[in-house]
């Protein structure tokens, strides 16, 4: 292989990145349209597009109401939450060089669950009204992360291994507290269990407008550090020699991902496996470069949750399966499959 | 001309380490495990912050540079180069351009040119499209060296570059690095375990013992039987071998009760 081939290799890579992004963007758009069409009442795509693009605005048409006020906010929230969980997974796996890293491994999902369970079972919250549960989930999510980080820090340095172990320990502690809350929940048990299983049944525009900016900003921050994450995946020594302030990147990534995760799970409950499988699938397709991995996981994760949420609300309609069950039921077998062939594909 | 002065006075690891390296010079840091070899390298590129003392590159204090500025001065080949991700060799070398690029900037034609030169210099251009996971230890090491070169550094730091390599690859790597030092006027500082390879390829040596410099200077001044005895507790013969044009260290055996004065550095005749 000689000189010119380097340019070709590089150009081919960029071309495949562009191609993947186009495919995923189109895929996301299509899955959103299909998801909006399907439901208790089927609305044909033609009419859905007309409504979405404002050609039909008749407020007396029930379909307009269904789409604009019920399905669209739910589908868009599903896309946002899916994107958030995936991008958080990418960031965690990159920073910790650990294929199993996901928001749950730092204990932050358990923290969020405990916050929500306080609000659901005891009615204890810093705010009241419809945001009581999300606000509690958010506060506990972020403070759990700070706690884990604080425990791991010694002498201005945070070793990755300590951080992961601290995350597991703190996560186990909060899981136990959540179990205790279930034990004493009484008639609130159903609501709590439903939240813990995750679901987007209560989605509305207001939730979307709260979650979306936080998640968009966080995703941008993670994207901002794409090159640093690349260097970190090879190893801390390598990253340092490539001009990366590893400790700072780690802190920023932990804070940002916990905010992104908090914004997502506050409204959707704990939805497992999205942050684990989506980044792994994308990695198998396009390789480990975070500059493509991050945007591709955002798009792929968004489509994944739109599709699984649509399954959740249609498979056993009119009753709704918690989407967390579907993602886990798809996720676990897939993970086993990955485990079987990771030597070749992942290097992990 | 660059003067690196170095002192690090933490409680234990390193004490009063000072030395100077010039462009085109290859310096070997030798010593047993735990003598602080790697720590010196890590202090040089501020992976660790020395408690006292300063590292100077062309008169600038490294402590006052940003991480990226340091990366533009020094390329590092860390000890464990086991890159286990399916990055291609080209992608790895391209990462060397990262410190010089602004956020969100893609590598331009000039970066690709630099990467090409670096890969040619390290003789890995034929591996460009291969995944790191498929490469041999020696090939991986050369890719990492190419990446360090792509940073366009003035200084190259290598931590045990020949560790775990077959003997042919050891020679290959050191020939490569020495060639680079001479051709590109790079300052090379290398930590090594191997006395013979260091003697053969380095211009100057630094022999460490318990975090202090026991001896520093040209090869025959540093690698004396006496010094080797003090540091490693062995009896050795050091001879100039004109067949390889370099000094050769031959281990004779363990020094019996090496702490007893007078028994250090037994005369070679005892064999």
In short:
Chain A has helices at residues 3-37, 45-52, 62-96, 108-122, 132-152, 160-183, 189-197, 205-224, 226-234, 236-241, 246-268, 274-286, 290-314, 323-345. Chain A is an all-alpha fold and 348 residues long. Among the domains of chain B are: 26-84 and 145-223, P-loop containing nucleotide triphosphate hydrolases (Rossmann fold, 3-Layer(aba) Sandwich); 224-271, no CATH class.
Description:
The complex is a heterodimer of chains A (348) and B (271). Chain A has 14 helices and no strands. Chain A has one domain: ABC transporter involved in vitamin B12 uptake, BtuC. In chain A, 76% of the residues lie in helices and 0% in strands. Chain A is mainly α and 348 residues long. Chain B is of the alpha/beta class and 271 residues long. Chain B contains nine helices and ten strands. In chain B, 31% of the residues lie in helices and 20% in strands. Among the domains of chain B are: 26-84 and 145-223, P-loop containing nucleotide triphosphate hydrolases (Rossmann fold, 3-Layer(aba) Sandwich), CATH 3.40.50; 224-271, no CATH class. Mean pLDDT of chain B is 81; it is low at 260-266. Chain B is globular, with a radius of gyration of 19 Å. Classes of the chains: A mainly alpha (348), B alpha/beta (271). At the A-B interface, helix 1, helix 9 and helix 10 of A face helix 2, strand 4, helix 3 and helix 4 of B.
CATH superfamily of the domain at 26-84 and 145-223 in chain B: P-loop containing nucleotide triphosphate hydrolases
Rough outline of chain B: globular
The end-to-end distance of chain A, rounded to whole angstroms, is: 28 Å
Radius of gyration based on Cα positions of chain B: 19 Å
The helical percent of chain A reads: over 70%
Number of strands of chain B: 10
CATH architecture group name of the domain at 26-84 and 145-223 in chain B: 3-Layer(aba) Sandwich
- Runs of chain A in which pLDDT lies below 50 for 5 or more consecutive residues are none
CATH class of the domain at 26-84 and 145-223 in chain B: Alpha Beta
Mean pLDDT of chain A: 85
What is the CATH superfamily of chain A? ABC transporter involved in vitamin B12 uptake, BtuC
Radius of gyration of chain A: 21 Å
């Amino acid at each position: 292989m000689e000189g010119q081939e380097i340019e070709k290799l590089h150009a081919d890579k960029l071309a495949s990145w562009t191609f993947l992004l186009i495919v995923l963007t189109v895929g996301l758009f299509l899955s959103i349209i299909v998801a909006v069409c399907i439901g208790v009442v089927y609305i044909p795509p033609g009419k859905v597009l007309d409504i979405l693009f404002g050609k039909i605005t008749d407020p007396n048409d029930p379909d307009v109401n269904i789409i604009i006020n019920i399905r669209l906010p739910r589908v868009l929230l599903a896309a946002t939450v899916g994107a958030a969980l995936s991008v958080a997974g990418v960031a965690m796996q990159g920073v910790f060089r650990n294929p199993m890293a996901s928001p749950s491994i730092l204990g932050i999902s358990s923290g969020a669950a405990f916050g929500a369970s306080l609000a659901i079972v005891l009615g204890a919250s810093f705010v009241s009204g419809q945001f009581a549960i999300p606000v509690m989930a958010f506060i506990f999510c972020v403070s759990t992360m700070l706690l884990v980080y604080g425990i791991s820090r010694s002498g201005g340095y945070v070793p990755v291994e300590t951080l992961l172990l601290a995350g597991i320990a703190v996560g186990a502690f909060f899981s136990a507290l959540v179990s205790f809350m279930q034990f004493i929940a009484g008639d609130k048990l159903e609501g709590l269990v439903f939240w813990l299983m995750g679901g987007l049944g209560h989605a509305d525009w207001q939730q979307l407008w709260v979650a979306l900016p936080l998640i968009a900003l966080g995703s941008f921050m993670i994207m901002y550090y794409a090159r640093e994450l690349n260097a970190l995946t090879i190893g801390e020594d390598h990253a340092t020699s490539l001009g990366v302030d590893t400790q700072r990147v780690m802190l920023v990534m932990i804070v940002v991902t916990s905010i992104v995760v908090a914004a997502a799970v506050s409204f959707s409950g704990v939805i497992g496996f999205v942050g684990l499988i989506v980044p792994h699938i994308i990695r198998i397709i396009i390789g480990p470069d975070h500059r493509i991995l991050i945007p591709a996981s955002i798009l792929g994760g968004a489509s994944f949750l739109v599709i699984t949420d649509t399954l959740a609300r249609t498979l056993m309609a009119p009753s709704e399966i918690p989407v967390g069950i579907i993602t886990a039921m798809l996720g676990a077998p897939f993970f086993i499959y990955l485990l079987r062939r990771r030597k070749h594909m992942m290097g992990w | 001309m660059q003067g690196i002065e170095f002192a690090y006075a933490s409680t234990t690891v390193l004490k009063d380490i000072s030395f100077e390296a010039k462009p085109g010079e290859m310096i070997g840091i030798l010593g047993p495990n735990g003598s602080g070899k790697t720590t010196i390298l890590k202090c040089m590129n501020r992976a660790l912050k020395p408690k006292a003392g300063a590292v100077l590159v062309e008169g600038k204090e490294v402590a006052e540079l940003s991480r990226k500025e340091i990366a533009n001065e020094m390329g590092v080949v860390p000890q464990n180069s086991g890159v286990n991700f399916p990055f291609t060799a080209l992608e790895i070398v391209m990462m060397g351009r990262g410190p010089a690029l602004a956020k969100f900037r893609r590598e331009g034609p000039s970066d690709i040119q630099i990467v090409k030169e670096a890969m040619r210099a390290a003789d890995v251009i034929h591996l460009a499209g291969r995944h790191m996971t498929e490469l041999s230890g020696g090939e991986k090491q050369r890719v990492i060296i190419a990446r360090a070169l792509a940073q366009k550094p003035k200084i190259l730091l290598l931590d045990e570059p020949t560790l775990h390599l077959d003997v042919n690859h050891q020679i290959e790597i050191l020939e490569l690095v020495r060639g680079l030092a001479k051709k590109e006027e790079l300052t090379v500082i290398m930590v090594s375990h191997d006395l013979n390879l260091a003697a053969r390829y380095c211009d100057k040596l630094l022999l460490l013992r318990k975090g202090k410099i026991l001896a520093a200077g040209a090869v025959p001044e540093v690698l004396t039987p006496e010094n080797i005895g003090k540091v490693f507790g062995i009896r050795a013969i050091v001879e100039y071998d004109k067949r390889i044009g370099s000094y050769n260290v031959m281990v004779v055996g363990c020094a019996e009760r090496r702490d007893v004065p007078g028994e250090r550095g037994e005369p070679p005749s005892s064999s």
